[in-house]
Design a protein that fits this description.
- By secondary structure, this protein is mainly β.
- The protein has a single domain, classed as Mutm (Fpg) Protein, Chain: A, domain 2, CATH 2.60.270.50.
- The chain starts with a strand and ends with a strand.
Length: about 190
Amino acid sequence: MAGVIKIIGIIVTGAELAVKIAEVANKLIPRPPTELMNRFRWIQCTVKNETQFALLVQESYFSSGRYFTPPGSTRAFDQLVFSGCNRDFSPTGVTGGTAFRLSLDDRNFLDIAIGWTNPVFGSYKAGVVESSRAKAGYDIATSRGNSITSRHIFEGTDKDGNAARFRIHVSAVPGQEKLYVIKQVPVA
């Protein structure tokens, strides 16, 4: 059984959490720019942060290619979009990973690494793993994608002062336009 980590702060729960998650889920994903789609190999990654916590970019890893538009950090209940492509004058693909930190409070965080590929030979892949190493995201990526649930349960208090527990669930969907969803999931 995973341990419980107590965090400082008011935890969004119930209908308020459901509304905020729906707002992020319903945000339109922008169409990739024409300049990106004109590249030999390219990807666009959308990360939907369906949590009340800031998501901070930590590190990147490339097996091939480069960022077209690099990832940044994003605030609670928002999405970020970044993209990658082959290097200029290079017939390789774009493959690698990005590590993020979900900042739960001043002392507690959850490290998440996502992987993404569009190689010259092989298939589109995506993956996610609980890790601070961007390469770990790349290493876990598969053509089927995957999902994880945080090893720990996190506990704070709701606006009424009651204990509120949750886990973090993350899914990775492969394709040229990849989708990663980070979700705050209440638990009993």
